[in-house]
């Protein structure tokens, strides 16, 4: 397993690898790369995910969109615990 669970590519066992919507030979940036690619191409107006170790911000940067990392505690703890644990901030892309 890579450090922090972060890979620099996005891959799905059913659909295969996600392609960066702008330079097709580049990575969409890791764990939330599919969501970043969907937002960048207009398939989705907004994405949501968790930002442990930059999991929202890095893919957003690779795909040319913005991501916000909220301060810990700004989203209800029940939502955070259900997602990835109490130390992972949840935020929009």
From TrEMBL:
Q: Which InterPro entries match?
A: Amidase (IPR000120), Amidase_CS (IPR020556), Amidase_dom (IPR023631), AS_sf (IPR036928)
Which Pfam families would you find in this protein's record?
A: Amidase
Instruction: List the SUPFAM superfamilies.
Output: Amidase signature (AS) enzymes
Q: Outline the extent of the Amidase domain.
A: 1-92
Listed GO molecular functions? Answer: catalytic activity
Bias (Basic and acidic residues) occurs at: 1-12
Query: Annotated region Disordered: where?
Result: 1-38
Family membership:
Belongs to the amidase family.
User: Which protein, by its recorded name, is this?
Assistant: Amidase domain-containing protein
The species is Planotetraspora silvatica
């Amino acid at each position: 397993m890579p450090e922090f669970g972060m890979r620099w590519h996005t891959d799905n066992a059913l659909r295969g690898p996600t392609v960066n919507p702008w330079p097709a030979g580049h990575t969409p940036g890791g764990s939330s790369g599919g969501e970043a690619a969907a937002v960048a191409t207009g398939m989705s107006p907004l994405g949501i995910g968790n930002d442990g170790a930059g999991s929202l911000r890095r893919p957003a940067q690779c795909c040319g969109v913005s991501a916000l990392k909220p301060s810990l505690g700004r989203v209800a703890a029940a939502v955070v615990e259900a997602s990835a644990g109490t130390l992972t901030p949840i935020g929009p892309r």
